[in-house]
Amino acid sequence: xxxxxxxxxxxxxxxxxxxxxxxxxxxxxxxxxxxxxxxxxxxxxxxxxxxxxxxxxxxxxxxxxxxxxxxxxxxxxxxxxxxxxxxxxxxxxxxxxxxxxxxxxxxxxxxxxxxxxxxxxxxxxxxxxxxxxxxxxxxxxxxxxxxxxxxxxxxxxxxxxxxxxxxxxxxxxxxxxxxxxxxxxxxxxxxxxxxxxxxxxxxxxxxxxxxxxxxxxxxxxxxxxxxxxxxxxxxxxxxxxxxxxxxxxxxxxxxxxxxxxxxxxxxxxxxxxxxxxxxxxxxxxxxxxxxxxxxxxxxxxxxxxxxxxxxxxxxxxxxxxxxxxxxxxxxxxxxxxxxxxxxxxxxxxxxxxxxxxxxxxxxxxxxxxxxxxxxxxxxxxxxxxxxxxxxxxxxxxxxxxxxxxxxxxxxxxxxxxxxxxxxxxxxxxxxxxxxxxxxxxxxxxxxxxxxxxxxxxxxxxxxxxxxxxxxxxxxxxxxxxxxxxxxxxxxxx
Length: 493
Fold this sequence. Notes:
Layout: H1 2-20, E1 28-32, H2 36-49, E2 54-58, E3 69-72, E4 75-78, E5 84-85, H3 89-98, E6 109-113, E7 118-121, H4 126-137, H5 140-155, H6 157-163, H7 171-186, H8 191-197, H9 202-217, H10 225-234, E8 239-240, H11 248-257, E9 260-262, E10 265-272, E11 279-285, E12 290-295, E13 297-300, E14 313-315, E15 328-340, E16 355-360, E17 369-372, E18 391-397, H12 403-409, E19 410-425, E20 437-439, E21 442-444, H13 455-473, H14 485-492
Parallel strand pairs: 1-2, 1-13, 2-9, 6-16, 10-14, 13-21
Antiparallel strand pairs: 3-4, 5-8, 6-7, 10-11, 11-12, 15-18, 15-19, 16-17, 17-18, 20-21
Helix pairs in contact: 2-11, 2-13, 3-11, 5-10, 8-10
C-alpha cells in the first residue's frame, strides 16, 4: 500500500510539473530546520519566488534552534545566542520588518580572569580603559582593531552583492568574491599567526584575544583567522538583542511567510529523476509515524556532519553526497540562580565585586565565561542585581558543571538549568571548503558555518541560498559565481 501511494504521488508530482511548464515558479519547497538559517531562508525564498509558493519547514525540536530561552523564577533568559553586532544588517532588517524592538541595555563592567587574578579590568571611564590597554600591551589593541576593521570592510561587500542578486554555489567562491586569496588564506592559517604578522604581541593574544575566542567559540587563538576575525568583530562596537527574546525573529519570519511548519525529523532525501528539473522525495518521522512528500527545491538548514546522530541520508545521487567529516564544538550553558562566590575571584567581600561579565584566558579551567544576565523582558524600573544579592548567572563551559565546580563559583544557589548545544564547528584549516549546492536544487545553508559561525553569518548564508535557488531555477547563470563583482556592481549603479 505504501509503495502504491508513493507511485501515485510521484505520478501526481510529474503531472503537476508538466502542467506548469518550464518557466513556472516551483510548486513546493522544503526547508529542513527552523533555526535562524531556516527561518531566514524561508522568508528570502518567498521574497524571490512570490507568496503563492508552498514552503514546508521541518523542525524536529522547537522553532528558533540555537536561539532559545530558559525560564528561571518566572522570568525568561537567553540560553542561546545572546546578542548581535550593530553591523548585523539582515538581523536589523528582520527586527524592523517584524515590528520587534531592541532590548534596553543594562550596563555592566567586564574583566578577564587568568586563573589566580584578573589580567584586565574594565572601569567606568573610557579613557582610563584605553590607557590601561596601552600601558599593558602597547598599541597591540589598535593593530588588532585595524586588522578586524579591514576584514569587516571586505565582508560587508556581501550585502551589496546580494542586493544586486548575485549568489555563490560554494563557500570558497563567496569568500574569494569578498577578499580574494587573502580570505581563502585566512581559513588556512591561525588567528595567532595572522595577528603576530601585523604586529600584535603574543601577550595580548594570550590575555585578550584568547579570552574573546573562548567566550565566542570555546576555542583558542590556534583556530583559523577568518572565523577568529568575525568573533573579534562581534566583541567590539555596539551590541543589541531583541525585546522578548531573540528567538522571536525565527517564529516571526515563519508566521510572516505563512510557512507550513511540520514538527518531524527528516530521515532522507531521494532524487527522483524527471524530465527537465529534478524532483526530490523527502521522508520524515514524528510521534505519529512516518510520512513523505515531493519537492522542487530542498534547503538543508541544519548541520550535516559525521557525529550528528540525526544525519539525513541522501539516496539516488550520482556522485553520492558526502557529509562533512569534522566535528561540532559542544557548549553547555548553565543558568544558575544564586550567590556568586566572589572570594574565588579575589574579592572576599561580595559587596566590592564590580563585574557583571567575566571572560577567561587559556589557563586550565572548567568554564569559558560567566555573566550576570538580564531577562529578555526588561521593564523601565529594572536594575541589575547587586553582587551580594542572588542573581541569575549564565556560565558557559565545554562540559556540564559538577557539583564541586558549582560550589567553586557560587556560595549557594537555588536552581541550575542547562542547555547543551552543538554550538559551532570545531574550526580548523580545510584543504577544500564545503559547497552550498549539493545538487541542482538541493542546498546546504550551514556550509558557511565552517568558515565562520554566528547568527548574522547564517542570515547571510540564507540570503545566498535563496538567490542561488532562484537564479538556478530561472537559469540566470550570469548571477552565479561571478568574479570581479565590485567592478560589476559599480557599473550596474
